[in-house]
Design a protein that fits this description.
This protein has 155 residues and is an alpha+beta fold. It is built from 3 helices and 8 strands.
């Protein structure tokens, strides 16, 4: 089986000096390698092809046959690395917390492992007859939520 750390090292070599970042590497038992990269402004197919060639030039199919797929982290897919949270600050996201509750709102800030989402909620004010809608900040930890993903809007 192909060594994940060897592939990761090759990807990191190619990424050096570029604005891209590694999102994930998966290697199946039958040596199907899937590399996901991302960039704040999106991923160009030419760069995926270049990274694919870079990896293929350095891995020997004679030693072990493999299938290689290089692509971008899918839009609307759950975030896997902190840089994705940073890139989507100010955008609408959906968070599924550890208790199974969903929050939809604007990703307001990211600090270390924590991120804050501003959610429009009905809040009952003391002395008021009816609840009013206002933005409420919820802070989560990246490693404690089931997922966070960008909400694509076609408005």
């Amino acid at each position: 089986m192909i060594d994940k750390n060897a592939v990761k090292k090759l990807v990191e070599e190619w990424l050096e000096g570029k604005d891209y970042f590694l999102v994930d590497i998966e290697i199946s038992p039958d040596d199907r390698i899937v590399v996901e990269i991302d960039h704040a402004d999106g991923v160009w197919i030419e760069d995926c092809a270049e990274l694919s060639r870079y990896i293929e030039d350095r891995l020997s199919r004679d030693e072990e046959d493999y299938e290689l797929e290089v692509g971008s982290a899918g839009l609307g897919q759950p975030f896997k690395v902190a840089q994705q949270y940073i890139n989507f600050t100010g955008k609408e996201v959906e968070v599924l917390d550890a208790d199974g509750k969903k929050y939809k709102g604007v990703l307001k800030s990211v600090s270390g492992n924590d991120f804050t989402v501003s959610v429009s909620e009905k809040v009952k004010k003391e002395g008021a007859k009816r609840p009013v809608v206002e933005d409420v900040d919820h802070t989560f930890q990246m490693d404690k939520v089931k997922y966070t993903k960008y909400l694509i809007s076609f408005k």
